[in-house]
Amino acid sequence: MPERIKLTEKVLREACPVPGRDYQIFDTDLRGFAVCIYRGGGRAFTIDYRHAGRQRRMTFGRWPEWSVAAARERAKELRREIDAGTDPLAQREAMREVPRIADLIERYCAQHLPKLSDRNAADQRSALAKMVAPVWGRKLVTEITSTDVDKFLTRVAEGRARPHKDRPNNRARKLQGAKPTPVRANRIGEILRKMFTLAVEWGWCEDNPAQRFHRRTETPRERFLSQEEIASLAAALDAAEDRRAADIIRLCLLTGARLGEVRQARFEQFNLEHLSWSKPPMMTKQRRAHRVPISDEVAAIVRQRRLTAIQGSPWLFPGDTPGQPVQEIRRFWARIQREVGIEEVRVHDLRHTFASLLVSGGASLEMIGKLLGHSQTQTTQRYAHLMDSPLRAGVDAVAVAFSCKPRLVHNANATSDRNSA
Fold first, then answer.
1. Strand 173-176 relative to strand 33-37, pairing
2. Among candidates 76, 66, 77, 136, which has minimal Cα distance to 105?
3. pLDDT tens-digit profile, the chain (421 residues)
4. d(Cα 121, Cα 111) in Å, to the nearest integer?
5. Beta bridge pairs of residue 174
6. Residue 259 near residue 352 (C-beta atoms within 8 A)
7. With DSSP H G I counted as helix, E B as strand and the rest as coil, what are the percentages for the chain, rounded to 5?
8. What Å distances lie between residue 156 and 120, 127, 159, CA to CA?
9. Could you give the CA distance from residue 193 to residue 187 in angstroms, rounded to a whole number?
10. Is 227-391 in the same CATH topology as 3-97?
11. CB 214 within 8 A of CB 188
């Protein structure tokens, strides 16, 4: 027979551990309620019960963190649940198997991110690991609400303090104030919306708390090079010693392609006879094949690169690491920016400049979207305002047609003066 005694604080303090085994002291007042004395000296409260013909034992609190009085009240609650037909131990085990946000992030990265471009997948993986996981990692997937999403994205949009160089010396660093990052909040909101949509499909939750997240207002950067800046940039690229990096910049401007697409270009993708460039799905942002025409100048660059290419290398711009394309041209571009005086211009702005030149040449938005590889028409609509010039010319023509013609007004005083003379 197990030992039975009314459990009190004094009983737990005076209970001595037995070397080599654990033992229980059952309470005389509440059925199944006991304290387990471990061989190492620890003490924990338990409740023994039967469910569906099985003998069960549940540990629910350690002494002295739990007092005897608090443990007795909890044991009474568990006994009522047991008498009602539930199995509290099975419920606890089920809760341990409920997926958490960390599990959702892991599955999302394993199953969804491989479908995206390498750059997009890397950006999402970094955002989830550095921003989402530290805040929500241990939470259950079913615990996250739309309010939680709004609070989290508000924190992201507020930005965070970043170290910056006050002087060229790396040791002279200060904390810069938080800079608002509404665009980052919108991008993370889109990641969360997709991730919880998949969680619903996988049966991990019933609804998507990020489905209608608050989207912050974005002010897209629209920087277009002027004709003078384009001429200065061309001259700087002609004089550059690093011909590989200079040709990369030239192709970005001449084709409107993204920097990553140019860096990873292969000779086999170019048809110099038909003057076309066929980008494979793995290389484009939309993960779709994209075939675009190229100019004679682009074809000349490809031919020149082929003459100077490393034997057996498939890359148009091979990198310093054998078997890999060039990875970075940041230092080169920073030097060109200083020479030309366009420090605020990004390499991606060359893509916008390409589109603006197409507009000035009379290209339609549909044509621009096809050349740039846009999958959605609203992406191309950002260049619609550039078409104001021809529209304004039409409006001016109408204004000229309806403007009042100058009329000769008869001056009576002048006529009388001539008569008197």
1. unpaired
2. 136
3. 466 889 999 999 999 999 999 999 999 989 999 999 999 899 999 999 998 888 999 999 999 999 999 999 999 999 998 988 888 888 777 666 678 999 999 999 999 999 887 778 899 999 999 999 999 998 999 999 999 999 999 999 998 765 554 444 444 344 556 678 899 999 999 999 999 999 999 988 889 999 999 999 877 677 888 889 999 999 999 999 999 999 999 999 999 898 989 999 999 999 999 999 999 887 877 778 888 899 999 999 999 999 888 888 899 999 988 889 998 899 999 999 999 999 888 998 888 888 888 877 777 777 877 888 776 666 666 666 555 555 555 555 555 555 555 555 555 555 555 555 5
4. 11
5. 164
6. no
7. 50, 15, 35
8. 19, 11, 5
9. 10
10. no
11. no
Distance, CA of 26 to CA of 6 (rounded, Å):
8
Q: Which two tokens stand for residue 54?
A: 């099985």
Report d(CA 326, CA 242) in Å as an integer.
12
Number of alpha carbons in the 13 Å side-chain half-sphere of residue 353: 23
CA distance 91 to 51: 13
**CA pair distance 285, 193, nearest whole angstrom:** 19
H or E element that contains 330: helix 330-340
Structure tokens at 366: 């549909």
176: how many CB neighbours lie within 10 A of its CB? Answer: 14
Helix, strand, or coil here: 199? helix
Three-state SS at 393? helix
Dihedral, CA of residue 144, residue 134, residue 122 and residue 216, to nearest 10:
60
**Nearest residue to 327 (alpha-carbon basis) of 245, 421, 237, 231:** 245
CA 350/CA 259 separation, integer angstroms: 10
Domain boundaries, the chain: 3-97, 101-166+173-201, 227-391
The DSSP element (H or E) to which 136 belongs, if any, is helix 133-136
Measured over all CA atoms, what is the biggest interatomic distance in the chain, rounded to whole angstroms? 148
Q: Give domain 227-391's CATH number out of 2.30.29.30, 3.50.30.40, 1.10.443.10, 3.90.1720.10.
A: 1.10.443.10
Superfamily (CATH H level) for 3-97: Integrase, DNA-binding domain (3.30.160.390)
DSSP codes joined into one string, 68-123: HHHHHHHHHHHHHHHHTT--HHHHHHHHHHS-BHHHHHHHHHHHTGGGS-HHHHHH
For residue 99, count other CB atoms closer than 10 A to its CB. Answer: 17
The letter for the amino acid at 258 is R
